[in-house]
Amino acid sequence: MTAxxxxxPERTLMGPGxxxxxxxxxxxxxxxxxxxxxxxxxxxxxxxxxxxxxxxQTENALTLPVSAPGSxxxxxxxxxxxxxxxxxxxxxxxxxxERMKENVERCGGTPVMVEExxxxxxxxxxxxxxxxxxxxxxxxxxxxxxxxxxxxSDAATLAKLARDHDCLTxxxxxTSLGGSPLKVDEWGLDAVYSGTQxxxxxxxxxxxxxxxxxxxxxIQARSTKVQSWFLxxxxxxxxxxxxxxxxxxxxxxxxxxxxxxxxxxxxLQEEGLENTWDRHQRMHEALKAGIxxxxxxxxxxxxxxxxxxxxxxxxxxxxxxxxxxxxLLEQYNLEIGAGLGSMAGKIWRIGLMGHxxxxxxxxxxxxxxxxxxSDMGADITTGKAISAAMAKLG
Length: 394
Description:
The chain has 14 helices and 14 strands. It is α/β, with parallel strands linked by helices. The chain folds into two domains: 23-269, Type I PLP-dependent aspartate aminotransferase-like (Major domain) (Aspartate Aminotransferase, domain 2, 3-Layer(aba) Sandwich), CATH 3.40.640.10; 273-393, Aspartate Aminotransferase, domain 1, CATH 3.90.1150. α11 (273-293) packs parallel to α13. It holds the Pfam family Aminotran_5.
């Protein structure tokens, strides 16, 4: 076989992730590779930790990017905090709550499930019932921003319930970090993981995590070894230690992706976290106006709707929703996402994340979607979506 250089097409990424990567981040990725123990690189690692503390709104010393995607950040949290025999209350309102359950079981723990309808947030009252019924529970685990549906749960209230019942929290913020309010210290979250490819507009492959002192104390008090060598925080911290001093070799860090993350977090700091949250909300309002003017509806009720992940119900007249996505990709170089699990074939997931959350993308998406749906005979209103969105954009 004769191989040629791979040159991907230029797409507009408006699915559930990855999002469009900012040009500054692409440039950062191309900078010269240096050693992962080089003093200059170690200095940059310290800056990444500080920038992540800002993004998470925390002063947790144990804040770092795991050298693997968000799923590894999830596994790090469970592998370090769950020991065989532990009871963990797991809240499930979509695909990623189910993955939490799987992690508990693989760590030898016993999951107690609090199951909600897909598209609904976690009900704090039902979580509290489970905590009362299981006073032996060690952890309450939940998804702050459920990527499979676009529903957002009340992390602050759930964290308070956990503290009231002497439980730690493990929280999935893969889709919320950098896109909607997330305040780790103020809300009292303990073990929090995220990803770089969503609202940070960086490339996939790194997982920002942060651990409270309560979580660190629990890890240090374990009676058994962490089941994963690679994700054992006791070992990883020898490399990601504090102060920028000498590091113990653990693994070869993904040097150039970390350049990209540093740039992504620098861009976040330049815009300002509150401004970033506000931009995502404003772009959502514009997309919402256009979607509703077309006669389409949202799957998640408005009070619980994530601005950066919009689940849109597939309209009447469309029997093959995949054909719509294929035409958008082939004719407009536009990617939107399909539904997962029980929502497959019922919703599209339109992402407004990071660099993708801008007026040009919204107007292009609405125009392309209206054109394809109209041509395929969908029961929609035409000619109104763009003007409705522009009225919101000002």
